[in-house]
Design goal:
InterPro entries: StARD5/6, START-like_dom_sf, START_lipid-bd_dom. This protein has about 160 residues and is α+β, with helices and mostly antiparallel strands. The chain has three helices and nine strands, in the order H-E-E-E-H-H-E-E-E-E-E-E.
């Protein structure tokens, strides 16, 4: 979990190489080749007219949180084991897509939540196997490289 958090901070500190691919008035999505796997990293950025704490309440990875209510790609989120008050092993399930052509997925990750001195809040996750969370039938087990969300306060 700590390694995933550090990886996200490295992405934040290294702004080079990102190429824009989609943009609306609210969100900009960019990508760059990964140095960890044969594929691309994707980053979505936007400024919301809300306090960082209110935004964090919408995105933080907790059971019963708001993410499953607004994010159509997150069907369920459950804590398998709380290791500390900021680190847990969690299962995220996604719905099927494209008229069920893409099967539902489940991801098992170790997740850490942090708050930094500048007010930034972070959730970082990376794939893990856990004895209490074997693969389930009717789900494809997904694999996450270090990933997560940053909620960064901006002046005003």
């Amino acid at each position: 979990a700590e390694a995933a958090a550090e990886q996200l901070q490295l992405y934040r500190r290294d702004p080079g190489g990102w190429r824009g691919c989609r943009s609306t008035g609210e969100v900009a999505v960019s990508w760059r080749p990964s140095t960890e796997f044969a594929g691309n990293l994707y980053r979505g950025e936007g400024i919301l007219p809300a306090s960082p704490r209110d935004v964090w309440e919408c995105i933080k990875p907790v059971a019963g949180g708001l993410r499953t209510k607004w994010d159509q790609n997150v069907k369920d989120f459950e804590v398998i084991e709380a290791l500390t008050d900021t680190i847990s092993v969690c299962r995220t399930t996604t719905p099927s897509a494209f008229m069920r052509i893409i099967s539902p997925r489940e991801f098992v990750d170790v997740v850490v939540m942090k708050q930094y001195e500048d007010g930034t809040m972070l959730s970082a996750a990376s794939n893990v196997e856990h004895l209490l969370c074997p693969p389930r039938p009717n789900f494809v087990r997904g694999f996450n490289y270090p990933c997560g969300c940053l909620c960064i306060p901006v002046p005003g």
